[in-house]
Amino acid sequence: MTIDTPNGNITPFYEIKDTTWGGRSCFATSDIPKDTVILEVNDTTGSSIQYEFRKEVCHNCFKYNGKSMKYKIKTTDVEGLLSENNKWLKARMKKFCGAGLWFCSTGCSDTYLRIPRIIDLIEAYEILLDNHTKMLKRNNPDDANEEKLNSVKISQSIIDSEWRNIEINWLPMIDKMKYTKRQQSLPITSEDEYNCARFVCNTLFHLRTYTKDTETGKSFWNLQSNELNKMMRFPILLHFQQLVFRTLYILLPETLRIDFNIGTFRHIMGSEYGNAFGIWQEDESVDSREYFGYWVFPRASYFNHSCIPNITKTRNNKTMYFTLNKGVSQGDELCIDYSGVLDFTTVKRRDFLKENWFFDCQCTRCKLEI
Ligand SMILES: C[S@@+](CC[C@H](N)C(=O)[O-])C[C@H]1O[C@@H](n2cnc3c(N)ncnc32)[C@H](O)[C@@H]1O
């Protein structure tokens, strides 16, 4: 059974309500039989393929066969899509490198190229690729400083004040600079920052479609942010985020920079920590499947975790399905498994959730076992 509602975007199977134990959660609105697909989503607001899989995973359907994908976007594919606004790309067409996108078939690259205004994202990706190629030739000072950057003390006021510093001092300084001087102010970045910058571009691009008056856009802006928890655990992330922000502020083309500001950037990053789903290899067991990257589906981000989940997540190409693995009664909480460690002992499992997801699990199994 799949969802079939008049507007296709609100499931009739559950309602989202506040709880006293774990923020908002989803509750069945009626008795629902096993095997019902209670949510089906393909409206990602942002996705990212891991750097090491960038050539081996199709950027359209996420197919993987252990080898480099055969198809890249060609200059001739892009020429017809260019508009007045793609000034950078127009000037650089002869040197076009494929924007770091690989596909399993011409069908997949054609489908990708048919996404409305995809040229704006291709342009941003190509700019980042060009910058990354230059960065590869430079020594990254952070490699030696990692330990120091990870020992910084983090609190909400420290995070806020670091961003205020960027806003008050760095932005006005950059705004005054001419193009060439701005380029010289680009920070040195590595593969991780390059990949993260691509994820932010991807999100900015999708948020043009999923505006605040759409169900997906509304859900995106309502996502819980895990900025503080994540940075307290990995202090280096504050420095990392600022490198990505500064890179994007200097490089983003006009078409994607309209809604780009510190607030949006922090929400994109903060909500990714704790809400993103893994893009896992299909048709492989949990123990041997590859992790290709992650993506955000705001409408699917209201499921809490349970160590005896009643929902199973699956992926088919670009769609995720949330299917009941047992029958539920009206009012039951509907939960997924975040962790993949349900076989661990109670203590280990709870420690894992605390370490990686920053919460003390309040599910019925944990309550029973402790
Ligand atoms: C993907 S969100 C789920 C929706 C979230 N409750 C909300 O209001 O946005 C994940 C967050 O929900 C909370 N959460 C999820 N499962 C939980 C559980 N079993 N026990 C306690 N808190 C939980 C944690 O704060 C976690 O960071």
Give an account of the 3D structure.
The strands form 4 sheets. The protein has a 4-stranded mixed sheet with strand order 1-2-12-9, with no helix packed on it. With 370 residues, it is of the alpha+beta class. A hairpin with a 5-residue loop joins strand 1 and strand 2. The protein folds into 2 domains: 103 residues, SET domain (Beta-clip-like, Beta Complex); 216 residues, no CATH class. The chain is built from 15 helices and 12 strands. The structure holds S-adenosylmethionine (SAM). The site of S-adenosylmethionine has 19 residues, from strand 2, helix 13 and strand 9. InterPro entries: H3K4_H4K5_MeTrfase (IPR050869), SET_dom (IPR001214), SET_dom_sf (IPR046341). This is SET domain-containing protein.
Question: What can be said about this structure in brief?
Answer:
This protein is an alpha+beta fold and 370 residues long. The chain has helices at residues 75-79, 87-91, 106-113, 118-135, 142-149, 156-176, 179-184, 191-209, 215-222, 227-233, 236-251, 254-257, 262-275, 346-357, 364-369; strands at 14-18, 24-28, 37-41, 46-49, 71-72, 102-103, 277-280, 291-296, 304-305, 311-316, 319-324, 333-336. It has a four-stranded mixed beta sheet, with no helix packed on it. A three-stranded antiparallel beta sheet has the order 3-11-10, with no helix packed on it.
